[in-house]
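Same chain as my last thread, 212 residues:
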Amino acid sequence: MVPPWARAPQAALEMRPDTVFLVTGSAASALRKRSDTRMETLQRRNELTKDRLRRKGIDPEAIAGLRNAALAKARKELNEVNTQLQAQGKSPLIVTDTKRIFQPDFQAELKRAGFSIELDAEGWSDAQGKPIWELGVSSNEKVEFSEVLTHLARLQNALLREKAAIHAFLFVGPDEKPKDPMENLLAMSKRNGGKFELLTARRLEELTAGGR
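reply #2:
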C-alpha cells in the first residue's frame, strides 16, 4: 500500500510525462497489514504493558481520552497563535499532525514568534513524566521508505521509455524543517533525476510572482 501522497506521482507517471512536479505537505512511508503471528505477539506485549501501568496506579483505559483532550487543547492554542500572527501580517504555523507542535524545531519557532504551547500530560504520563503516546496495537506497520522508491522505479520502468524527472516541494511553515519528510522527498528526487525544495508561503509568493 503506497501512502496517499505517493498516489499523486503515480497518477502523473501514468500520463507518461517528461517531468513531474510534486507539491505536498506530507511524505510519510507506506503501511502494510501485519501478519496474524506478529499481531498476536504485539497484543500480548501490550497487555503486559497495561498490567504494569495498572500496578503503578495508571488507568490504561483513561489514557486515550486524556491524551486526545490534551492534543485538542494544543490545537486550539495553535489556532489562537495563528489568528494573532495573521493579524500581524505574518504567515501562520501549519501542522498536519498535532504532535508536531511539540517537536524541538517547532517549539523553537513558536518561541521566536513570541508564543508558547506546553503539552498537558497530566494523567497520561509514566513515572518519569514521559507522555504515553500509544496503547493498543495497530493492524498496520510502517514500510521502509526504500519500498516506496522501489514502487516508483517499477512504475517508471513499466510506463516510460525514458525516466521522468520528479521534482518535489514540501510545503512547510516558516523555518520548519521536518527531518523525515525532508529526507524521504530528497531521496525520491535524487533517485528520479529531480530536485527537492522546501516551500514556504513566502517562497510560493515569490514563485507566483516569477521570482527565483
